[in-house]
Amino acid sequence: MAEVKGQVLVFVLAIAFIGCVVSYDRPPVRKNISILQPKQFSSTSPQQVHISAVGPDKMRISWITQSSAPSVVEYGTSAGAYTESATGTSSSYRYLVYKSGQIHHVVIGPLDPNTAYYYRCSSDSTRQFSLKTPPAHLPIKFTVVGDLGQTGWTNSTLQHIAQSNYDMLLLPGDLAYADFVQPLWDSFGRLVEPLASQRPWMVTQGNHEVEKIPIIHSTPFTAYNARWRMPFEESGSTSNLYYSFDVAGVHIIMLGSYTDFDPDSDQFKWLQGDLGNIDRGKTPWIVALIHAPWYNTNTDHQGEPESDLMKQHMEVLLYKARVDIVFAGHVHAYERFSRVYNGQADNCGPIHITIGDGGNREGLAKRYMDPIAGISVFREASFGHGQLEVVNATDAVWTWHRNDDDVSVVSDAVWLRSLSSSPACKS
Ligand SMILES: [Fe+2]
């Protein structure tokens, strides 16, 4: 670990040096990408494949076929040799004049940890996929990216993520930026499939997932809930919009910024129960994800109830439970805060990090408030992604990777110490 710490120190010094001598011109918005269905696909070809963790040793495989096909996944640890199979369910939805394909969800397992599996969907022999399960114990490496969208910058970010050898991706909302245009959900599914079919992508919702139109389509989250089903039942949640899970020694909490969060709400009560059930011996780290940031010195998205009211209601719960990190999106920039609680630096509060810079079509949020709040440690409006490597029960390293044109450059790096290992923060 000393070697890794040394490397991070070199990174930090190099960044400081480069920052002194090179000014970085922030690039403009890049064009939207639209990924069409490949011509060779039939109506029953599996497409838009993505996977998500379910419990300690299972994985949900999700995919879409244009017409009816069996909801079956065949899998095994050797390419082409499928020793196991599992059956699930499929459904479709309507949104105005759009009708989705058949959306399949199949849970496979039990699976061995940190192991490669090969699989195929709907018994289609023309497309074989592979995945790697997360490790059962630390260390584990997460990629964190928000407000991804589907532009040339998204492509750049995805290429950098592909090189990062991560175990699991965490996404704090705003996926496709379909914004009512349902074929864009299909395009997004195709865009992320090469990565999302290989490693679990665990997501929560943002404002661009709501897609509610008064009277015409009054049900929110129709496409999101149908396409991106997450393991909510396993954590006692009654909604796909908030849930939690354990992975390798980290308890991950996905909160819903766009569903009820007041003290009488189901989400609030569920969160209270969930935080009360955490075994810090088993999961010494706690990480929470929201969409609208509770701390933000950018001029964008100030004063929104999803930020201010949710913080007012729920911050004390996360503080008392000694949550280590809160990731947010929504603001299209990167910002890292100190440990903070109730607006003040607090050594027992979570570190808040805004990572809403995945590459969406709305562009960067470049204007910041002046003066800088004392708790904002690093902020920059550039596209990029983050990596959280939890090394052991006490230490983790966080790096933010800026898309410097098309090269991934580590532009912020910090070592973190878990609150569960701090005698002064024993809860
Ligand atoms: Fe957003």
TrEMBL record:
Residues 349-409 form the Purple acid phosphatase C-terminal domain. Residues 140-334 form the Calcineurin-like phosphoesterase domain. InterPro entries: Calcineurin-like_PHP (IPR004843), Metallo-depent_PP-like (IPR029052), MPP_PAP (IPR041792), PAPs-like (IPR039331), PAPs_C (IPR025733), PAPs_N (IPR015914), Purple_acid_Pase-like_N (IPR008963). It catalyses: a phosphate monoester + H2O = an alcohol + phosphate. CDD domains: MPP_PAPs. Belongs to the metallophosphoesterase superfamily. Purple acid phosphatase family. Keywords: Glycoprotein, Hydrolase, Iron, Signal, Zinc. Its EC number is 3.1.3.2. Residues 1-23 form the signal peptide. Its cofactor is Zn(2+); Fe cation. The keyword Zinc applies. The keyword Hydrolase applies. GO terms for molecular function: acid phosphatase activity; metal ion binding. This is Purple acid phosphatase. Residues 46-132 form the Purple acid phosphatase N-terminal domain.
